[in-house]
Amino acid sequence: MPLLPQQIAPVDERQAALTDDHLSGHTGALMDYFLALRAETDAALASKLPPAAGKPYPYGRCEQITRDLFARLARRLKEPATDVDRVLHGFVAQGGMVRTVWGVLRDRYFQNAIQFGGLYVDVSNDTVVVTKPKVEILPVAECGLVPVRDIGHFRVTAESYWGATIYANHLVPSLAPLLPMISASPGRLRPGMQSACDYMIALMCRDGFRQAEDWLRDGPSPPADVASALLASVPPDLRARTADGRAESLDACRWVRAAGCDRDDGWRDVRVREYLRIART
C-alpha cells in the first residue's frame, strides 16, 4: 500500500546501505549541523509564536519548528556550502530518502520529525519536555515513531497528550468527511476540528471516508459550550443547516464517497481552504 503523506517509511536494503555509506559515520557532525539550524529557527520563531496551551515557546511547536527547519535545510542543499551540506546533498543525489514524518511517538504524543533513509532526526525534541535536548538522532528502528492507525488511535493519543475529549463533528458537515473529530482540552487548547494534517486527511480518504462515517454515526455530539466556542469562528455558510447535524455529516460522507471525492485533489483543496477560513478566524 502506498505511503501516506508524512508516514514514516520502512527502511529497505537500499536506504539502509545509503545511510551507512553517507551518514552513519557523521553522527556528531550531523548533530552540530541540526543544532545550528535549530538555533536559526528559534531566532525566527520564538518571538512570533504565542504560548501554546499557556506555555511559552518551544512547547507544543514541533510542527512549526520542523517545517521551518526543513525549509532552511532545503535551501542549504540546493547550494551546498559546508561539509555537512555536501554529505547530505550526496546522500540525496544517490537516491537517499528525505521526508518529513509525523505520528505517535512512544505511545505518548504526536510528533513531527525528519527521516533521512535509516535515520530519524527529531529537530523539535524539546517541545513536550522542554528540558530535553533540542535535537535527537536515532536509527529509525529505535525511534519509536509509528503511524496513526485509525481514529481510535488518534483519540487515545489526543486524550493522553492533550487531555482532550473527542467529539463527533456534527457542526460543520461539509468538512466532516475529512475532519470528523472535534477536540476540547479545557485550559489547554481551544475547541477545534481534528485533524488537518496531511497524514490524517489522507487516512480519511484512503477508505472512502468509511471510518469517518462510523465515528460520525456513533460518536457523541459536542456539548453546548464546546459547540458554541467552535462555532464562534465558523462562517454561517459552513455550519449545519438543520438541527440534525449528525444526519448532515453522515450524508456528506455518503455523498462524497459516491462522487469519488476521496480521489479528487481539487475537492480536497477546496475543503482545506474552507478549514483555513475557520482556523484564521
List the helices and strands and how they pair.
Blueprint lengths: L12 H10 L4 H19 L16 H17 L4 H11 L4 E8 L3 E8 L2 E4 L13 E4 H4 L1 E2 L4 H12 L2 E4 L12 E5 L3 E6 L3 H9 L3 H9 L5 H8 L13 H14 L6 H16 L1
Antiparallel strand pairs: 1-2, 1-5, 2-3, 3-4, 6-7, 7-8
Helix pairs in contact: 1-4, 2-3, 8-10
Distance between the termini: 37 Å
Strand content: 5-15%
Q: Structural class of the secondary elements?
A: alpha+beta
- The largest beta-sheet arranges its strands as 4-3-2-1-5
Count of β-strands:
8
Major β-sheet profile: 5 strands, antiparallel
- Tally of domains: 2
Please, what is the average pLDDT? 96
The number of distinct helices, counting runs of at least 4 residues, comes to 11
The succession of helices and strands, N to C, reads HHHHEEEEHEHEEEHHHHH
Kindly state the percentage of residues in helix. 40-55%
Principal-axes shape call: globular
Unreliable stretches: none
